[in-house]
Request: fold
Amino acid sequence: MTDAALPEAKIASPAPPREETPFTRFRKAFFEDRVAVTGLAIFSLIVALALLAPFITPQNPYDLRSVDIMDSRLSPGQVTGEGFTAWLGTDGVGRDLYSGILYGLRISLMVGALSGVLAATIGMAVGLIAAYAGGRVETVLMRIVDLQLSLPAVLIALILVAALGKGVDKIIFALVVVQWAYYARTVRGNALVERRKEYVEAAQSLGLSHARVVFRHIMPNCLAPVIVIVTVQTAHAIALEATLSFLGVGLPQTEPSLGVLIANGFQYMLSGKYWISTFPGIALLLTIVSINLMGDRIRDVLNPRLEK
Amino acid sequence: MSVSTPLVELRNVSKRFVKPLDAAARLANLMGAHHREQVVHAVDGVDLSVVEGEVVGLVGESGCGKSTLGRVVAGIHAPSEGSMSWQGKTTSAMTSAERKAATLAVQMIFQDPMSSLNPRMRVAEIVGEAPVFHGLVDKAGQDAYVDMMLERVGLDPVYKRRFPHQFSGGQRARIGIARALAVNPRFLVCDESVAALDVSIQAQVLNLFMKLREELRLTYLFISHDLSVVRHLSDRVVIMYLGRVVEAASAADLFRGPNHPYAQALLANVPTLASRHKRFAPLKGEIPSPLNPPPGCHFHPRCPMAGPRCSAERPALREVAPGHVSACHLNDGGVGG
Reply:
């Protein structure tokens, strides 16, 4: 029986010579651009460092027992009382900056990614519904978006966080609230253009359901700008979280994010202790720039008209 | 020709597009301004019936409402006024299952072969989506079904993993036809379906339409501004001007003896080999704006025969010969006041 089954199986799957899936094509196109690859390399390194933080840092900055006030404001390269070398120096309460930056990156990246994904999902749904439904629904939704966009993001986030209290979940909530409107407006603009194209009329004439027309036909054609905004807004969310923490309403001192670290060093800047703010700032900058470099390339690659 | 009920029948169908006033204009009106809503009468009181197996050509200048009429027939636009019936049953009286069947039975072939195909879907998905969605074929049978449809329109099924932009214009037109055929339609509305193609490709696609007509017993509403194409294909020709039908007759009758001055002017300007040295006498002026159509007969500002009655009274469609109707006062007591 196995003898008979074997040739059957061979005929059924003639092993196509490595069929090109959309992902392999995307990967190939993405790697053609050296700048984007650099961005990806830096970003991967940052993510890896953040994930591995507990294993590669000499100190857990969340654990106050491991922090010694006697080690405060050591300049880069000095040896701490614990016996390890603080290559990037220590901050005002004796936290090793290298350890602090890696732990801070974990929070910053998580906040950026979660708020980006949530805001994109909500904003896309609102934008698509507004564009497809039209009429009063569209007017109401887009006036809410206008209202949202007319207020400065920092101000709204500041008020929300001040009202809700400190904590990672509250920060993410505040960031989603200030960011969904960007997605909604961009997606609506794109969806309005797509909606009038003949393939949407064709889909309607083929009797497909509204949900299918919106999510299978219109949405994929609005995704390219969303992905670009996701990268820009994720970077922006990370910066905004740092801003809020810098202003003292974001994350508590005991959970140092990059913003808290920068804020801690701010008061020493003029006294020559540059490292406390500078190194977390460089980490923040590298993270945001690397995300943006990738976003640019992703936008180009995802444009099907550039495909040869 | 049998006297059976027509496959599609439109009775007094109008389609208006209204641009509503925005809040600022409404506010200004409250304070004494006179902003009005802008209304485009794209289609204005059209009767049209198509019997099974027929090819009806719909002709007119751009902006005359022929595409809008096609979209009303295809169910993409709902008529603002009037009724449409499918096999003798008006759409408003249909159950939802009947309406769905009628929607699928009338399919549209679009003008622009690029924008009418979703750029992010592969051919297999473009053609196979609707039949799977409607349960005409199960997911496992989709591949074979798509192959069959592609072969029917003269495309090699090996290309079905490609995206629309990887095809030439003629091939895209064929994909659009395959997509429509996949839901087993009985009536195709072709909206300038070959206008975007090269002449040699046009001929191929037109021949494909005729082949499908015979194989699948299809009925066509063929919208075009190209009179030679319409003459070649159609059994009956309907001429529209600014949202109204001005003349309808069998293709042979119409091309032999057009009655309406507009139809005469149109046909006089068809380039033929025999008319190579003729000087063309184009119609004067542009088609008027449908936002503000002229009163009476819409054609009177450009008509060489116009008289005082033409700007006062809308001419009705009258039979001038068996099966040949025309809307002109010349057939009905003259144009004098």
In short: DSSP finds twelve helices and two strands in chain A.
